[in-house]
Specification:
Helix 4 (161-193) packs across helix 6. Strands 1, 2, 3, 4 and 5 form a five-stranded antiparallel sheet that branches. It contains ten helices and five strands, in the order αβββββααααααααα. It has two domains: 23-125, Jelly Rolls, CATH 2.60.120.380; 131-378, no CATH class. The protein is elongated. The longest helix has 33 residues, at 161-193. Strand 2 (56-74) and strand 3 form a beta hairpin. With 394 residues, the chain is an alpha+beta fold.
């Protein structure tokens, strides 16, 4: 029988998917911070307009606590592509333009009078539809990761599925409470923290605060359940199933959302404003992150491992009555989300490759790989029922 050599075909498929990031190009990405005292300034930032059939998306977003001003995107022939006046509050400007008959030098103008706040202006090329197709892989791959963890653990242990669903339900309740708290309190807390400390301290303290919300609400709900139904926490495979249920359900939800977003951006005709907003968010990520479609599934593998290890630790702590295990589980998930919190507060997505952020998460996943088997070995043996007295001989 002739032996098939699959290596070249796999390599060709892999290499064929790599250019998804090369075709996405950011022409301008400028941001600034004013204040807290008011500033008056006028700035111009230049960028090169593409020629041919390429279209561009322009985006401006700002939040100002005082002052007024204007923004303007001007083409190579001094034509105004987009302009907006703003006052105190939020200001946004979105639009798609082109193609342009010839390349040229364009500019973005920002003017403010006695203004305090922060802003960002982005100009990016809109990639062709074929360059977006690999993004359709991200969502299904995230869902595959979720199912692989859940089905794999069930196949190995035959743990009833209700334990996976219990983990998913506890996760959903914890996330709902976390979101409610964040909507009410995060703007107040983070807004008060930012001017009170240095920028580096703001990122560290603010990131830890954001991460601690995950520990308090997601892990707190698991601990509360375990303390109420202590007799249920007698089996290590069940505890692992609870953690997998939480991480897998999160991956399924994010995978569905990612697949829907990618399909909408590629196949659904949207109003210009909605289309511009999606491109303005996606193109910087595509331009800075090679193999962006693979980044999300890898991140879900790391996250699920940490979900499992943190819940295994806290459930072991309840079963073994060891408070230090509870704190370790809380800190593991808190520190994991602290990294994500710092990245979001520093607005790193779109500025650096997302693979650097995944690399920062990797140590927590490696620690989790060690924690899970250790916690299974350390699980206390369930108490045996008392022996029945022997019946007297007749």
């Amino acid at each position: 029988m002739r032996k098939r050599h699959w290596g070249p075909w796999v390599a060709a498929l892999w290499i064929g998917l790599i250019p998804v990031s090369a075709s996405a190009k950011v022409l301008l990405n400028e941001r600034g911070e004013l204040g807290p005292e008011g500033h008056t300034k006028h700035e111009s930032f230049f960028f090169d307009l593409p020629s041919g059939d390429v279209r561009i998306v322009v985006s401006f977003a700002g939040s100002f606590s005082s002052g007024k001003g204007s923004v303007k995107f001007v083409g190579a022939k001094e034509e105004v592509l987009a302009a907006k006046d703003f006052e105190t509050g939020r200001a946004t400007l979105l639009g798609t333009f082109g193609p342009f008959p010839e390349a040229g030098r364009a500019r973005f103008e920002f003017s403010v009078q006695e203004g305090a706040g922060e802003w960002q202006g982005v100009v990016a090329e809109i990639p062709e539809k074929r360059d977006l197709y690999p993004l359709l892989l991200a969502g299904p791959l995230m869902m595959f990761v979720a199912l692989a963890f859940a089905v794999g653990w069930w196949w190995r242990t035959r743990v009833p599925w209700r334990w996976f669903w219990l983990g998913a339900g506890l996760w959903a309740l914890g996330v709902a409470l976390k979101i409610a708290w964040a909507i009410l309190m995060n703007p107040i807390i983070l807004t008060a923290l930012k001017p009170a400390v240095s920028y580096r301290a703001y990122l560290i303290i603010g990131g830890f605060y954001v991460g601690s919300l995950t520990g308090v609400f997601e892990i707190g709900i698991v601990v509360l359940w375990a303390l109420i139904w202590r007799k249920k926490v007698t089996d290590a495979p069940r505890a692992i199933a609870v953690g997998i249920g939480a991480g897998a359900f999160e991956a399924l939800a994010l995978g569905l959302a990612g697949a829907a977003n990618a399909a909408t951006m590629i196949f659904v005709p949207l109003p210009e404003q909605a289309q511009a907003a999606m491109y303005a968010a996606a193109v910087p990520l595509m331009a800075t992150t090679p193999l962006l479609w693979l980044c999300s599934p890898v991140e879900r593998v790391l996250a699920i491992l940490c979900h499992v290890a943190s819940r295994a630790l806290v459930l072991l702590g309840v079963a073994a009555r060891r408070m230090n295990y509870l704190w370790r589980g809380f800190l593991l998930l808190t520190l994991l989300d602290t990294v994500a919190g710092v990245a979001l507060l520093a607005e790193l997505p779109g500025k650096i490759s997302m693979w650097w952020i995944e690399l920062a998460l990797l140590p927590f996943a490696l620690i989790s790989v060690l924690i899970v088997p250790w916690s299974m070995r350390a699980w206390p043996e369930p108490a045996l029922p008392p022996e029945l007295p022997e019946l007297p001989a007749e």
